Amino acid sequence: MALYQVAAGILERAQRKEGAVKGLVYESGYKNIKQLYALVCETLRYSSILEGIINRTNLLREEKKLKMNVAKVLVYDILIGKGLKCGGVWKMIARKHQARLQADLARLKVKKKVSRTEDLLVPSEGAVKAPALPRYIRVNTLKTNAENVIDYFKRQGYAYLGRASSLQELGRLSGKQFLMDLHLPDILVFPPRTDFHKNYLYTAGHIILQDKASSLPAFLLDPTSGSHVIDACAAPGNKTSHLAALLKNKGKIFAFDMDTKRLATMGTLLLRAGVTCHQLANEDFLKVEPSDPKYSCVQHILLDPSCSGSGIVDRLNDLTDDDGSSSAERLQALASFQRKVLSHALRFPAVEHLVYSTCSVHQEENEDVVRHTLLENNAFRLVNALPSWPQRGLPVFPRAKCCLRASPTETLTNGFFVALFERKKGGEELLAQVSCKTAEQSDNNDEHVEKAEGNPLSVTKKKKKKKKKSQQAPLEKIQKSETV
Ligand SMILES: C[S@@+](CC[C@H](N)C(=O)[O-])C[C@H]1O[C@@H](n2cnc3c(N)ncnc32)[C@H](O)[C@@H]1O
């Protein structure tokens, strides 16, 4: 397929949050990966400038068949890149408008008082430049364990430096060094830009390329093996595969997503990761009936709905307006959907714990959604999640600090937000929990006790805690939450 069409397709998938740019480029099967990756990255870098030129010159109105993302890659190549290489009919169209496009770019440079095009990218005064993030990998415990993965990398010439004791250590990694993460188990940390897309462990599903912050939701939800879980907005499925690993493939994950293409990608990812305990449904989660007996044992829900994506570092330019902020209207529309879907999720009768997460940095999509939901629903409260995590929710309501935030500058991750809800305990709820024990859970009592060592969430688990303390590995001691 033609370069520009493939590049535009990747921009579109990145906007729909189907994965990181690098992964999407590799998945495309395009023969010249390097050329494609460079074109996509550069187009993203100049995205808001290109969009401005396209809009001011009325390009899409004059060329009805031309879509924004194809226009962006074409205009990038004709104005900033190495000139149009291929493109057939698109090339002819772009050539037709070349003079006008060049004139608009020239006017923009005069207006911004710069002589080189790249100087248009200079951040405005006071803007913080995001640091390059470490490369995080999650060990897929359905297929292997951290020890095996560490040994494998050592044999590949990497130097293992042990478990990190500070975030600064993660930020100092260079060359072929790597560390075990200090906050989350089964996360290994490598220097920025380490590329594992061709690594055997990745292609065989033994490791998952997932930002550390995006591993928080499943880790905090921590479903016991054998339990029933809903992943409400699941595709492309990194969090689903993490949930399956925590469940040890025992129990059930009901995973929903409205987007057919993303679900197809998810099917491939889950197969590669060895996930077998899931049921995928191409369905609007808002239309899933909470009283359906099928979901009567669902005690855990992971809700990671569509959001502005404003926290994702390699997409910052693409998804924000010229002034760096998402448009107020768009944010309001997203927040309204997020509130709706969160309230819906809390209607499932047996749900005990729910994790709400976004990769947005906006208060409107995060603390405001949580505050609104708590005001509307007094059966649930917030749990003080992972007390050792350094960045907390913005203090815009009394318990907002129970929530977690993440950012390139403070946690060396993409921007992220997580809130852990817990049903307030009362006689009726406890009865419901007992009657909801699934067959798999009854078969796995020993496993529950073991898992409970690291999870102070449930009353029964807490009682067993003292007994096994001496056997705990250091990472199992991580306190995931505390009730305040
Ligand atoms: C942030 S992404 C989910 C990422 C996913 N949790 C992961 O870790 O790979 C949000 C997803 O929600 C889906 N979505 C949006 N509205 C939905 C709805 N009403 N019901 C189900 N899925 C929905 C989108 O198609 C998109 O795939």
Secondary structure layout:
Elements: H1 3-15, H2 21-27, H3 33-45, H4 47-56, H5 59-62, H6 68-79, H7 88-112, E1 135-139, H8 146-155, E2 159-163, H9 167-171, E3 177-180, E4 187-190, H10 200-203, E5 207-209, H11 216-221, E6 228-231, H12 238-247, E7 252-256, H13 260-273, E8 278-281, E9 298-303, H14 328-345, E10 353-358, H15 367-376, E11 380-382, E12 384-385, E13 404-406, H16 408-411, E14 416-423, H17 427-435, H18 439-443, H19 445-452, H20 459-468, E15 481-482
Parallel strand pairs: 2-3, 6-7, 6-9, 7-8, 9-10
Antiparallel strand pairs: 1-4, 1-5, 3-4, 10-14, 11-14, 12-15, 13-14
Helix pairs in contact: 1-3, 1-6, 2-3, 3-6, 4-6, 6-7, 14-15, 19-20
Bound molecules: S-adenosylmethionine.
Description:
Strands 6, 7, 8, 9, 10, 11, 13 and 14 form an eight-stranded mixed beta sheet that branches. A five-stranded mixed beta sheet has the order 2-3-4-1-5. Helices cover 41% and strands 13% of the residues. Helix 1 (3-15) crosses helix 3 (33-45). It has 484 residues and is of the alpha/beta class. The active site is at 359 (nucleophile).
Number of strands: 15
Net shape: globular
Count, helices: 20
What are the bound molecules? S-adenosylmethionine
Profile the largest sheet. 8 strands, mixed
- Fraction of helical residues: 40-55%
Query: Structural class per helix/strand content?
Result: alpha/beta
Radius of gyration: 24 Å
How far the N terminus sits from the C terminus, by CA atoms, comes to 56 Å
Beta-strand proportion? 5-15%
Mean pLDDT: 85
Weakly predicted, low-confidence segments: 124-128, 316-325, 427-432, 443-476
Pfam family, one: Methyltr_RsmB-F
Main location: nucleus
Protein name: 28S rRNA (cytosine-C(5))-methyltransferase
Organism: Pleurodeles waltl (Iberian ribbed newt)
